[in-house]
Each structure stands twice: as structure tokens, then as C-alpha cells.
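REQUEST ID: PR-0412
SUBMITTED BY: lab tech R.K.
PRIORITY: routine
TASK: structure prediction, single protein chain
INPUT:
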Amino acid sequence: MTSELIKKLLNDAFSPELLEIIDNSAAHAGHAGARSGGGHYHVTIVADVFEGRSLVQRHQLVYNALGDMMKQQIHALGINALSPSEETKGRL
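STATUS: complete
OUTPUT:
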């Protein structure tokens, strides 16, 4: 359910060309964050909004889009935020 909400929020905020969400929560069972209910996720997102922005700015945009989820539902979030031109370079 949390993965689906992450997907909805990021789709609504960025209309990405690519969005992949990996739920790694099961691998962290027993971890302090897992005990408090927060999951571990990795997001790869490709969207125009990231063009010309620094890594910190990109991460801030993602955190802002996820809002209150970052306080309880998400304990750890890996972010790979790319612009379309960067994603295309990666395929060459």
C-alpha cells in the first residue's frame, strides 16, 4: 500500500517518463525503523523538472512531494532522480 501511495504522489507531482519503486522493507525486518512502522524504499524517477537542478534540489523536490510520508511511513528512501537527457545518456 505504501508503494502505491508513493507512486501516486510522485506521478501527480512530476508526471515522470519513468518511475520505479523498489520496496526493500522485508530485508530490514527487526531494524529500528522497521519496528516503528517505516519502510525502506528506493525510487528511480525520470522527469523534466530535474533538468538543471542539483542533487540536493532533486531530493528536496521528491521529499516535498512525499510530504508527511517521510515522517512515519518511510524510514529510508534511496533516490535516483534524473532528467530525461541524463537517462538517455545512461542507455548509450
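NOTES: The first strand starts at residue 18 and ends at 23.
REVIEWED BY: pending
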